[in-house]
Design brief:
alpha+beta; 3-stranded antiparallel β-sheet
């Protein structure tokens, strides 16, 4: 039996539901670089990421290209689509770190959506954020060049409250993974990052990115709108 006392992002669900989650849930772990949950798993279970990052992506073997749809981190959920429509979601996943997730029976999750308002209030805004993310990705791929897409990705992951200005889920991410997030290839990302470093906007050290000049980065992005 698990021993959660609270569970983000479901902070207001109450002790009774937490007790049930502890009773029916279990922890699963995935080593770095391994596939995570697959479409058979998500037909039966629902997942909340506890530690680490998971890439959710599509892959085209004809041209060896991939497009990352979501980069999931702590407190993210997977797979909300299958919870709602019960259909197989044919995407691929990879653990970018050593990952720990909470696995819950999908039928229980559907039951809680109908009976627990607090669970419902956290679940549906999360779906809306994911829908907006996919809409933004489609728009960016259609309307903006790779340099602008990269700068927008950096801004999206930038915690302005953090004086160190580290880049959240992008931190220590290989450049080929960053490329997959914006629909390009590694050498293009490398070129754009070096240009931003040359302009004094970014600091790059051992794969760690930090923003030195947020104002200048915002100004460069705004010129493209």
């Amino acid at each position: 039996m698990l021993h959660f006392k609270h569970l983000e992002p479901f902070e207001e669900i109450g002790g009774k539901l937490i007790d049930e989650i502890n009773r029916v849930g279990r922890i699963r772990e995935y080593p770095k670089g391994s596939p995570a949950m697959d479409d058979d798993d998500t037909l039966r279970h629902f997942y909340i990421i506890i530690e680490g990052r998971i890439k959710v992506y599509r892959y085209n073997p004809a041209n060896n290209r991939e497009q990352t749809l979501y980069l999931l981190g702590p407190h993210d959920m997977f797979d909300v689509l299958t919870v709602l429509d019960g259909r197989r979601h044919e995407v691929m996943t990879e653990a970018l770190d050593h990952v720990k997730v909470l696995e819950l029976p999908i039928e229980k999750v559907r039951e809680w959506l109908e009976t627990n308002r607090a669970f419902n209030r956290a679940f549906f805004p999360y779906i809306a954020r994911q829908m907006r993310q996919v809409e933004e990705l489609a728009t960016d791929l259609s309307l903006y060049d790779t340099s602008t897409r990269l700068m927008k990705l950096i801004l999206k992951n930038l915690d302005l409250k953090n004086p160190v200005k580290h880049l959240g889920l992008l931190q220590n991410l290989p450049h080929d993974e960053i490329a997959s997030l914006i629909g390009t290839v590694r050498h293009v990302v490398n070129r754009h990052l070096q240009q931003l470093k040359k302009e004094g906007i970014l600091n790059i050290e051992r794969k760690k990115l930090a923003v030195n000049d947020v104002k200048k980065l915002l100004e460069k992005v705004e010129k493209e709108y």
